[in-house]
Amino acid sequence: MVPPEGFVVSANFSGFQNNETGSSIIVADFPASYEELVKGFTKEALKTKGMELISKETVSYQQKEAMLYKVSQIANGITYLKQILLFGDLKNTVMVNGIYPELFSAQEKAMRTSLFSIKMNEKQIANPLEAAPYAIDVSGTSYVFVKSMAGSLLYSEDGQLPSKKGMLIISNSLGNKVYTDEKQQAIERLKKLPNASKAIIQKVEKVNISDMQGYEIVAQGDKGQLLYEVMLFNSEREYYLIVGEANENKVKNLEVFQKVARTFRVK
Question: Which of 80, 190, 211, 217 has a 20 to 30 A CA-CA distance from 231?
Answer without folding.
Answer: 80
